[in-house]
Design a protein that fits this description.
Chain lengths: 136, 136
């Protein structure tokens, strides 16, 4: 695909070349998955969501939420109160995404033992090959 | 989770900490998605698969296939013929993964217009905020 040389912003270039690929990346990203699954339960305030997910930095969670909000998956509701209160919830589109991502995450969870056995077999076969290849 | 300090290999550490997360990363990776969806159709030889996917380097495709093979999702069948012939196909587990990943990819494809409209609205709102914020 020809891309105008005037488009210098990397994000814009990638969006032009492969737009739906990027949405897939956003919803299956490390924190994207966890945010979507958490918000399926109910709306969350930022600090609550951060505690619920755990191990995510404030910066990463902010970026993840902004990306999902920009894609129309998450709704950010800033209430004009003191102290400021911001709630995050799924849009209808976000709910569709979250349900599909959760199904995929549950599948990987259920099938993990099979994957671990496959990895062991693969690693053992590789090690055997290397030993045999190392023979004089 | 406590991780032994003796585990120095980064891959092993990540596998120990969050094993099913890694499978999700593999099957939703840029090339992982495309390989799985392509192999749903039929088994492919390496060079055929590379042409079918397009824009993927030999090295990246090799790595992607090895990762999926190690996870037990792809079967590598090296025929003892001259010239060597290697076929790649989905295992039963790989087929389950591929069907779910394809459903997710199709969903992002179908909903792309809604996402693009959301992004336009988000960017316009941001630009408006910045103009208003820039006022004296």
């Amino acid at each position: 695909m020809a891309v105008s040389t005037e488009v210098n912003d990397a994000r814009t270039t990638r969006e032009t070349m492969c737009p739906h690929r990027l949405v897939l990346e956003h919803i299956t990203s490390r924190w994207g998955v966890l945010v979507l699954i958490q918000l399926l339960e109910r709306p969350y305030r930022f600090s609550e969501l951060r505690r619920a997910i755990g191990r995510v930095s404030e910066k990463m969670l902010t970026q993840t939420l902004q990306t999902l909000e920009r894609d129309g998956l998450v709704h950010r509701d800033a209430k004009p109160v003191i102290p400021p209160r911001v709630d995050y919830s799924l849009t209808a589109l976000g709910r569709e995404a979250a349900e599909r991502v959760r199904a995929l995450a549950l599948w990987t969870d259920e099938r993990m033992e099979t994957v671990l056995r496959a990895r062991e077999a693969y690693d053992a076969a590789k090690a055997r090959q290397e030993r045999e290849g190392a023979r004089p």
